[in-house]
Write a structure and sequence with these properties.
Distance between the termini: 12 Å
Oligomer: single chain
Strand order of the largest sheet: 4-3-5-2-6-1-7-8-9
Structural class: alpha/beta
Number of domains: 3
């Protein structure tokens, strides 16, 4: 059976259940099966020519282009054949979709209003057979300080392909290098990186020294081999759009490769199985419910209340740990600042080490400060890692014991609960926070809907795990912590680069030989103070998000079990039990068929 046949087999079970929530999930999943998508994200500095390349792909000037840095926003190209021509929309912060005029779209490209999350262009048919591609054009690096979070946490990790555009004459500048190092933390084995060198003079090929220099630098920054493409500059006054057939053909080949299509197929099959498992549990609840006395249902509710008390204990553990970290962070950053300043000052004062002030200043900026920042940052992230790991162990123990006690007591109330418990264990064993159907579909607004979240099927990799919920929680929490610690590294590096650039700017003017060291040490302290202030603020904001993520994961664990046993009903007609049992058996047969092999 293929995915479409599976959906046809699942639909009768959804219809018979007559449950609005399951009907909605089925419809959204059907749309993902009908229209599987791959994500392509364009990145690069302002005026590198990203938007012009997209206009060239579309064959018309649709996206506003400017060499001047603007506030900017993210523009999405989305294939949707209901609109007869390319039609602009705004995705609002409340996840609603608002149609725009061309003039409104250009205005929002320049300076988006506060209630706009991003812009979207509905394209009736993607050019160059790029069906299934969702293309995201991000603002230039110099324009997206307020968009870094969304680009880094949503678009880069969810991308199948990243297209990074640089200008031939500008090359990889300081901002490009900073951003490439920033995103290298998020590159994964299943993410393809294409480098585009734009506006290349006629006659220049990949053998050109300048081209080799740009490509080699990009490889060094990303620590991996990459494909690159040259796009020739357009001369003359006539309005022409840049063409990049080699690039778009490579993108098509990548997103439509059998390996990537199989990955998407596997994830969709996993979601279909999840939906069937949930439907089966609903039918099992009906069968068990009619057999229970009012007293038994009351006992189940008491057990649920005790489970909710354990959930509150988990909240308290989370808040205690994060409150402790929050109190200690300012001290840790202050200590890091002092250690960095002392170590760097000692290096600068070694007068016999430097041949000139310029050599010392350059070495301090390029090597000393990044080296000691990395050492001190590691101490901070090790502390956070240790505290969260201890929290993880406590939560793991609490959750497992709570679930063991609950399931034991439920089985004492009635042996009829056994099939529900078995079904729950099966479904929880292979799910992670990233691969839960409800969570995934909540980010997908439906075909033509806002789809405010970025939910890429190809990135929802399934993982095997044991049956205990604590193992699932441990795995999920570890993944979130790993992402968080990488983010601290990227943020700290970015803040240091900015602080050093500002603090040391202008120091190269001629000063007396006996004064430049003192001046440099003073400017280093200024840069470190800026780094401390900015990075502490960023990490504190990230800790709020990590606290919320831990709370949501605890909710996910408890809510899954509570919803399975909540709202039991013994008022249904017992004469329908045979039909319900047949439904459960038919569901199991379909599940067996879908999971065979």
């Amino acid at each position: 059976m293929n995915l479409l046949e599976n959906m046809s087999s699942i639909q009768p079970f959804v219809d018979k259940l007559q449950n609005e929530s399951f009907s909605t999930m089925f419809k959204l999943l059907q749309e993902r099966v009908d229209y599987p998508e791959s994500f392509v994200t364009m990145l690069g500095e302002t005026s590198s020519g990203k938007s012009s390349l997209i206009n060239g792909l579309l064959g018309q000037e649709v996206i506003y282009t400017s060499a001047k840095p603007t506030t900017g926003t993210i523009v999405e190209l989305y294939e949707y054949d209901i609109d007869e021509k390319i039609t602009p929309y705004a995705i609002m912060n409340n996840a609603k979709l608002r149609k725009l005029t061309d003039a409104q779209f250009h205005e929002q490209c320049l300076s988006p209003s506060g209630d706009v999350l991003r812009l979207r262009l509905h394209v009736p048919m993607m050019p160059r057979q790029l069906q299934g591609m969702r293309l995201f054009d991000t603002p230039g690096y110099g324009s997206i300080h307020d968009k870094h979070e969304e680009v880094l946490t949503q678009f880069v990790p969810n991308s199948d392909v990243i297209i990074y555009v640089v200008n031939y004459r500008v090359g990889i500048g300081e901002a490009d290098a900073e951003f490439l190092q920033y995103i290298s933390n998020y590159l994964q084995d299943d993410l393809t990186f294409f480098l585009v060198i734009n506006r290349v003079p006629e006659g220049i090929t990949s053998d050109n020294v300048r081209i080799k220099e740009i490509v080699t630098y990009a490889k060094d920054l990303l620590h991996e081999d990459i494909q690159h493409f040259l796009v020739q500059s357009i001369s003359g006054n006539e309005v022409k759009l840049p063409q990049a057939p080699g690039l778009w053909d490579a993108v098509r080949k990548e997103i439509q490769s059998p390996e990537r299509q199989q990955l998407i197929n596997d994830v969709l099959l996993n979601y279909q199985i999840q939906l069937l498992q949930d439907i089966q549990l609903e039918w099992q609840k009906k069968v068990v419910g009619v057999r229970l006395s009012d007293e038994s249902i009351q006992q189940v509710q008491q057990e649920i209340e005790e489970l909710k008390d354990k959930q509150k204990e988990a909240y308290e553990l989370i808040h205690k740990t994060f409150n402790t970290i929050e109190v200690n962070l300012p001290r840790l950053f202050e200590t890091a600042n002092n250690h960095m300043h002392q170590s760097i000052s000692n290096e600068i004062k070694k007068t016999n080490k430097w041949t000139s002030s310029e050599e010392c200043i350059g070495y301090t900026s390029a090597h000393l400060m990044p080296r000691y920042e990395k050492l001190e940052r590691r101490k901070i992230t090790d502390y956070i890692d240790q505290e969260i790991t201890i929290l993880n162990d406590k939560l793991n123990e609490l959750i497992n014991q709570a679930f063991i006690d609950f399931t034991n007591n439920i089985e004492i109330i009635s042996k009829d609960f056994e099939p529900i418990l078995q079904g729950f264990s099966k479904k929880i064993a292979t799910r992670t926070t990233d691969t839960i159907l409800k969570s995934f579909l909540s980010k997908f607004g439906g075909r033509g809907g806002a789809g405010a979240g970025v939910a890429n099927l190809g990135k929802k990799v399934m993982k095997k795990a044991g049956g205990l919920v604590g193992k699932k929680f441990t795995r999920d929490q570890y993944n979130q912590l790993a992402k968080f610690l990488k983010k601290i590294g990227a943020t700290s590096t970015r803040n240091l680069t900015i602080a050093v650039t500002i603090a040391l700017e202008g120091i190269f003017y001629v000063i007396e030989a006996n004064r430049w060291q003192a001046r440099l040490i003073k400017d280093v302290q200024k840069a470190l103070n800026t780094w401390q202030q900015d990075t502490l603020k960023d990490v504190q904001l990230d800790m709020v998000e990590l606290r919320q993520t831990n709370t949501e994961m605890v909710n996910e664990c408890f809510d899954e079990l509570i919803s399975t046993f909540d709202q039991l009903d013994n008022t249904l007609e017992i004469k329908e039990m045979d039909a319900w049992k047949k439904e459960i058996n038919d569901l199991q047969n379909l599940l067996n068929e879908m999971t065979r092999g």
